[in-house]
């Protein structure tokens, strides 16, 4: 054993000694607060004597600041397996499933065999660089392969059977058939790129932050490396959205669909898919004296391939939302049909209390809603957007119409108004332009050639909000226009 002196001449408590072909250290920790016994702390596996001395000094410093953890050879994969079980019992089902998928797909194949205590900020940074610039080099992309086969046959004017595509790419016949239908209406995949998108790596960053916070709390690691690593920067791009006229065209095309009320509701409130699928009749109050409202307390989401109920994305997502008269009329008619179906099925009806369900009351698989939406969009030949894109469309239409951002944020269930404005800043750049003009008119003289604007002059709507409403009403089915007009007359008579 060897001892070392500090520069001051005092001896450093502890010793370093060779162990096989490596070096180890040993020293005694502070007395136990109950027994008074001093535990022996040791670790081996160092390449040089100096490495062992330096590691012992770091360990003693960690003891002094109460951040010391016992040396462990637990690997990243071993820790994450126990962490998955913990997350399943402490978070929403979708969060747990997403975290597990992110870890198994992007992290464990790369650093899973390393020890948890060897993961430093530089290791995490190197992982991010690999995911952004080198990943996906050898990973198959069956969607792209199917598209290339289909596109080549189209260019050669050959009749390529769906079964041939399935056999050549190793997918099921049903999968190949769905893919071909997507390609035929213009839903084609993007060419595979080397590396993952910054948004994907940002999700990995959030997951690792949660995992290493738990690891530190469990004394698996002495310090959380994620505290010294930043997530990759993301470039915000405008969302793909519809105009009020395009939204009206979609609703007109969906008028005969069983879930027409669902499409109206998502268009008029911007609700999430999980909120639509989980909406219960108890959450509706269509006859309230102050106007119809709904409250979202339950969501229906897919986690691990199964449909489960959740409590919403955040506290703000569990919110009341006021409903307009048209949406109220459509929902009232929809509920009447549900009552008729319940009576027709009798004891065989599956009464889950859901607003949107099958004829027998059975739950709708959320992905089925997405498939139905895509089919309707393809039939109308509208710009291709996702179902979540309708939510973005609602937000941008509301902001452009002059609705206060606080109201928009509240109706969407966002955590803060700042998040709403940051999310849609690229979609509604005219907000900044309008602000400049409105503020300038308060104290600046008119620009040369500028004429005063008289609201409502020339028969034009006084606000962008009225313009959007007029455009929407013109495209409504006649029967619902009549309902709205009748309700308006009744309201005027009451006054």
From TrEMBL:
It holds the Pfam family Phage_integrase. InterPro entries: DNA_brk_join_enz, Integrase-like_cat_sf, Integrase_catalytic, Integrase_recombinase_N, Integrase_SAM-like_N, Tyrosine_recombinase_XerCD. The keyword Transcription regulation does not apply. CDD domains: INT_ICEBs1_C_like. Keywords: DNA integration, DNA recombination, DNA-binding. Transmembrane segments: none annotated. Residues 237-437 form the Tyr recombinase domain. This is Site-specific integrase. It comes from Saccharopolyspora endophytica. The lineage of its organism: Bacteria, Bacillati, Actinomycetota, Actinomycetes, Pseudonocardiales.
